Amino acid sequence: MLEPRRSGSVSPAIRVRSRKDLQAARRRRPHACWGHLVAAALWPLHGTNLGTLLRTCDAVGACLAVPPFRWVDEAIARGNTLRRPSCIHRIGDPADWLKRERANGTRIIGVELADEAIRLADLPPANRRTIMVLGHETTGIPPEALNQLDLAVEIPMVGTGHSLNVAVAGSLVLYKLAGLL
């Protein structure tokens, strides 16, 4: 139903969904641990990005993989605004873990500025177990881990910055891989 605005233009009536409506539309049970989508922030520089990324993982039903540093655990605890436990896994040697995962048939996608990268808009949703790898905010994905990637994806930018921060870039790619964009 279209209702007139005060300025004389016509716009659709907008109904904001209630908390009850939102809960009814979402998944009925928690996702399985090490499900088909994993966000791997294996070389974090800024702890504040980890809490934001964890919130996105929850939103799309993904797990978060991080290195086992004490400051990472503390950063996640500070930034975790969720009311229930989240799917977080500590990874020892990132390159070795990625190599094992790839050997087991997991698709490894890196968010990286590379000549071979595809644009985010061209990234299809994940149809099998997929790990999205995020690099260090300054230096990117290390060469030993780049060798494990099946695909690199880049997020086009119009402005003057070189890249987005890890939390924003990871969130965009997770939503695309989850088929929610």
TrEMBL record:
<dbReference type="InterPro" id="IPR051259">
    <property type="entry name" value="rRNA_Methyltransferase"/>
</dbReference>
<dbReference type="GO" id="GO:0008173">
    <property type="term" value="F:RNA methyltransferase activity"/>
</dbReference>
<feature type="domain" description="tRNA/rRNA methyltransferase SpoU type">
    <location>
        <begin position="47"/>
        <end position="175"/>
    </location>
</feature>
<dbReference type="InterPro" id="IPR029028">
    <property type="entry name" value="Alpha/beta_knot_MTases"/>
</dbReference>
<dbReference type="Pfam" id="PF00588">
    <property type="entry name" value="SpoU_methylase"/>
</dbReference>
<dbReference type="GO" id="GO:0003723">
    <property type="term" value="F:RNA binding"/>
</dbReference>
<keyword id="KW-0808">Transferase</keyword>
<keyword id="KW-0489">Methyltransferase</keyword>
<protein>
    <submittedName>
        <fullName>RNA methyltransferase</fullName>
    </submittedName>
</protein>
<dbReference type="InterPro" id="IPR029026">
    <property type="entry name" value="tRNA_m1G_MTases_N"/>
</dbReference>
<dbReference type="GO" id="GO:0032259">
    <property type="term" value="P:methylation"/>
</dbReference>
<dbReference type="InterPro" id="IPR001537">
    <property type="entry name" value="SpoU_MeTrfase"/>
</dbReference>
<dbReference type="GO" id="GO:0006396">
    <property type="term" value="P:RNA processing"/>
</dbReference>
